[in-house]
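Appendix B. Chain record.
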Amino acid sequence: MSTTHPKVSVVLPFFNAEKTLHRAVESIHEQEFVDFECLLVDNNSSDRSGEIANEWTGRDRRIKLVSESRQGVMFASNYGAAQSTGGYLARMDADDWAYPERLTLQVEFLNHNPEYGAVAGRVKHVGEAQQTEGFKRFVDWSNSLTTYEEISSRRFIEAPIVNPTAMWRRETMVKHGMYLCGDFPEDYEMWLRWLDQGVKIAKLPEIILDWHDSEQRLTRTDPIYSDKSFYEIKSRYLAKWLEEHNPFHPNVAIWGASRISRRRARILEQHGIRINIYIDTKSNRQIEKEVIYYKELPKAGTCFILTYIRQMNNRERIQEFLEDRGYVEGEDYLLVS
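Structure tokens predicted for this chain:
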């Protein structure tokens, strides 16, 4: 083990997590990779969480307890990162379980791939199937993205990284910043910002974390994780991407003429994007703008298409249709949601 700074700093913020904190910390304590420190960041807990954390500091000298008075996981995570000393930083949540090989696999990846600034991993969804079916679908989709190319090109569908699986280099954090405070999901904004600034991110093919879902999880209860917040921040970065990559900028065609699709796509207009036409699978839909039937789609190279379709199966069928028509992802169209 290093006699100076550890190789990895694990940042684990918690708030009133007495039911799950021991399990989460234990999973870090039992890592195969031993050259780490784990910073437990108490974010104003009023239950037994602080006692549980303090017990762990007495049991394992690599585990340290600090506190952040500003309420919010963003503040707690940033404070933990600021107090850390490792060359690599790993995020962990207080209600999850990291597999014993997690740190080993991620350290090996970053050691052998210096061009990458961060690496994440696949997760196993743990939750009541009927109550959390939507999250299960998201996990299946997220687990399907492993390469940098997939993560980069699909980032405007959903958040491509499950936050508590992430590990990144200290220099990545220093150069590109950590979580920002705002009315948006702080982790999704950070991934969008890092990818926008050229950070290469990969995902291990292995499952490295049990991701526990519940009705109390912040992503279900905090307004910054609402659909509206996701679409606002997503649209901001998507508009920037279009300005740099769309050969017909500021004009786009939107695949999806339903009321929901139009409402989501119109957020782009606030950022200078002009919607010329809509594409729909119904041949007689009438709205405020021109709608063309999808079978009458113009040839590739005449417009840039954004597919505002949320259902995964439909999205895949649309992609297959576009590819058959000669459209190239990233050049002629982009999958968004």
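Further analysis of this model is presented in Appendix C.
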